[in-house]
Structure formats: structure tokens, C-alpha cells
Input
Amino acid sequence: MRYEPQLARLGLFDARVPRYTSYPTAPHFGGSVDHTLFTTWVEAIPAGSAISLYLHVPFCRRLCWFCACRTQGTQSEAPVIAYVATLLAEIALLRRHLPQGVTLSRLHWGGGTPTLLPAAQIERLAAAVFEAVPLGAGAEFSVEIDPNEIDAARLDALVAAGMNRASIGVQDFDPLIQKTIGRAQSYELTRDVADMIRDRGVRSLNADILYGLPHQTTARMIDSVEKLLTLSPDRVALYGYAHVPWMSRRQQMIPSDTMPTPQERLRLFETAAELFNADGYTSVGIDHFARPDDGLARALAAGTLRRNFQGYTDDTAPVLIGLGASSISRFPQGFAQNVSGTSDYTKAIRAGRFATHRGHVFAGEDQMRARIIEALMCDFHVSRAEILRDFDCTPDRLDALLRSASEAFGGMVTVDADGLTIPPAARPLTRMVARAFDAYSQTAAQHSIAV
Ligand SMILES: C[S@@+](CC[C@H](N)C(=O)[O-])C[C@H]1O[C@@H](n2cnc3c(N)ncnc32)[C@H](O)[C@@H]1O
Ligand code: SF4
Output
């Protein structure tokens, strides 16, 4: 790593920084958005426009120790079936408030583990969504699949419902790492599930893997990536493992002395990235890789790559509505988040109102700063001309913002007449550069390490 001393001097190995899947980030949401305002925002969606939906299933059959996602373990089907009934009621409520002719651009089911729904529930839920918001031209339906929690019947139900993108959780193939993070999953099982998905005609397969895991070494990383490449995923998300045991209590099962150092994390990321690039994958944003013909790589080339709560996307719909407990919605006016606990969520929906609990109404420079941060996270570049064209900002104000961000990174981030650019050597700093534009920023315990 040629630039390690410079990156160290700039604080890369000490900083805790958000992943900027939104701006402001969710910890800065407050009580200014309630179900009444949410309803107003839904009713203001232009008739005949396209929107996207995210549907959250906060249940898992087993709870992996490493996982920082909001989810609860359940062995029985009763809470899951009850939750689906509430989701159906929420979809019906949404349908009553949506303007005429709104169609669906993207539907994503995430969790938790959406694939623990029985086939009959998958069918009911998908049918209700498509009745409420019919699929538009070129629509995509993607689902997060835990290879340990899927079978032919549930996969058939998903494919019959129209799933055309699947994402499988892999994390790492090494047995010692799997044991340490509480997630057993053999290579053979993962391969068989990938084959089952492809055999059913699903045209796009994503895989999630992690760097920075306990006991992860360069040799183990190489081995895991090479195994993953034999499955030939269309996209890979290479997330940095966020070790936050003070927030995610299950992670206390993972001994801290088995964790790689921040410097080792950077080398693990770079080792994996080199292997993906050598195999023909295009780097997309800070942590994704895509085959050149995949939608993400094409969006990157076309300058239409976006960032949302699920990570990177080629979806350009201006509205994303989150269904289910803790889901976040994005509107041109701001963000709205549903209450997190399933019982409070159920209570609100049963009472016939949306379960909105908190959010953020855009004001002042919020949208301009959001655009700058999204551009950095997607393109490593902020176009001065675009910002001045789209926002009410004077050239002096913008130049001062760009210059001060660049100065904070001692020449590793450049500013010229075109705007601000993060060159390849400085890309590990991207989240920190984004934070320089975050007016709400503060060092918060819930954030993961910057690299
Ligand atoms: C919400 S989980 C759903 C995946 C599905 N339940 C499964 O287990 O395959 C989505 C992804 O979040 C990522 N993830 C979970 N905990 C994480 C952590 N502590 N740090 C980084 N990524 C994490 C994992 O890569 C996981 O595949
Ligand atoms: S990784 Fe997936 S299966 Fe494991 S606890 Fe997290 S959401 Fe559940």
C-alpha cells in the first residue's frame, strides 16, 4: 500500500464515519415527520409517475453473530404470518392514498430474511403489491436470499411472482471465519442455491461478502474471492465488516483480538478488489463490483448511478416507499421512517394509519449537500456546473465549500474549474470526504470504522 502513511496521517485508520446511504443519515432523523405528513407526501406523488418500494421482513430463523441488521429470531411461523397480515394492511392503506396511475420501478424485499416466508405468503404479498402498484416498463423485483433459508417451493413462488434479481448472503467461505462469526454455510450449499436461482431464469445474481472479518488474512480472502468467482455473480457487494458490539450485542460473541487492524482491513479490501477487477468486474462506488453489462456498471458509465438505503442502485425514481417495521421512505420533500418495533408498527397499521415515527424535512442546503455526498459516493467527483445549475447557490459559496473539503485532505483531493475529484489513491478516504460536506456530522458511536 503505497499511500498508507498519507492515509494514516489523514486519520483513515481512526475515524468512524457513516456509510452515507442517505443525507442526513438516519441517526439525525427527528420527530418532525409523522403519519399525517407522510400521507401528504404520498398524496403529492404525481399521478402516472413511477415509484419504488422496499419491503422489510425483520425475522430470521437463526441470528448470525456478526450481523448488525435489525432483525429478530423466530422458530415459529405465527409471528411471521401475523407480520405479513400487517404488511398487507399497510399496502392496502398505501393503495388508498396513492394517486392514479402510479407504477412500480423497483421492488426490493430485504431484511432480516424475506425468504423465511412460506411460499403461500410470498404469493399473497407479491400479488397485493402488484395490485396496489402495477409494474411499470422495465421494472425490477429483487429479493435478499439467505442460502440457508430457501428451498425449491419458495424459490418457485418468488420466480412466479416476478423476481428477476436475487441477492445471496455469502460473507466468507472460510470454515474458521464462519465458526467465529456464527454463520455456517458451505461452499456447496451456496453454489447449489446460485444454480437453483439461475436455473429458474433469474437473470441477475448479486452476492454479499465481507472484508475485515475475524481471522481474515490475505490468503483466506484470496481463497474466498476465488470460490465466489466460480459462481460468476453479476454483482458483488464487498462490505467492510462493521464491528459495533456496544450496539449489536450478538457481536460480543466475536473475540475482539481476532479482528484485523484497520491497516489490514484496507489491504484485505484491496486484495479482493484487485481479484474482481482482474476477472473483468468494474468497480462501482466504494464497495461494489459489477460485470460490465450489469445495470450498475452501465449506470456508472452513463452517470446515472444513485445511492439509496440498499446501497448502490440504477433506479432513478424520485420516490422510494419503505413498507414494514423500521423501513425508511424517501420523497422529494424529505425522509420518513416507520417505527422499529413490530408491535408498535402493528398497532399503528391496525389503527388505520401509517406507522411513521420519525424523519427529516429537507431545508436550507440539505438537498445540495445530499447531492454532493451522493456524487462523491457514486462518482468520486462533484461537478461544479451541475450543482450551480440545480441549486440556489452562489459560485463563491460552492467554491468555499469545495476548497475547505479539499484543504482538509492535504492535496489528496483536488479542486479545479470542473469541481472536486477524489483520485484513485485517495478513494479509501471517500466517506471522510463526504463527511466534510455533512452539516449534521459528529463522531457517533453507531458508525463503523472509515475503512
Ligand atoms: C440484511 S442482511 C440480509 C441477508 C440475508 N438474511 C442473509 O443472511 O443472507 C444483508 C447483508 O448485510 C451485511 N451485513 C450484516 N451485518 C453486517 C455487519 N456487521 N457489517 C457489514 N455488513 C453486514 C451482510 O453482508 C448481509 O449479507
Ligand atoms: S445475516 Fe441474514 S440471516 Fe444472519 S442474522 Fe443477519 S439478516 Fe439474519
Observations:
- The pocket of iron/sulfur cluster (ligand 2) is lined by residues 60, 63-64, 67, 69, 71, 111-113, 146, 169 (CB under 6 Å).
- The radius of gyration is 21 Å.
- The mean pLDDT is 96.
